[in-house]
Task: structure prediction
Amino acid sequence: MERGPAGPLFLIAAGQSLPLETAALWPLPAEGRLINVSVQTGYPMFRSPGRAGFTLVELMIVVAIIGILAVIAIPNFFKYMAKSKQAEVKTNLKGIFTVEMSYFTEYNSFASEFNSLAWLPVGPYRYSYAMGGAPSGLDPPFGAAVNCGTPAAGINGFTAVGWGNIDSDLATDTWQITEDSDLQSTWNDVDEESN
Result:
């Protein structure tokens, strides 16, 4: 008996299956074709014509896998998005440090007003900024900066503060920089468990 890749070859003709050696004695009808038959089960190794596609169980497994991946990925996506928004406050506070040092070089004192420094935050902005005078940047509906040093400037040094709500919860992301170029997060709204 001739063998295919998975088992003996059979001839399917007119709804009957015959072993190939028996079928060789008969003339081949026009609709006859050779198929592989499983050695273990004896059934043909093909799907019947009306049963193409996936089963419900296969589809449910795929949906479950996609759901598990979404549960893992979506919170991380929002966290990385909020961290990218923090780049604004870091950049602007470093800019404040730079112009304050230039101002100190010229006037031997630090300025407490942004107008004296000719500094404006780079927009569109999500944070408010203060150095003891009037805040600049976003007009916060959530009030003054909290969990930080007092924004102030004078002869001996300055503390500039930037604060904002970057992820729509109740916590405020707060950063500060001093005359020593010490940029630090005093309340990290992204990693609240680290506060």
In short: The beta strands are 9-13, 16-19, 33-36, 128-130, 136-137, 152-153, 158-164, 173-178, 184-187. Residues 56-107 form the longest helix (52 residues). The longest strand covers residues 158-164.
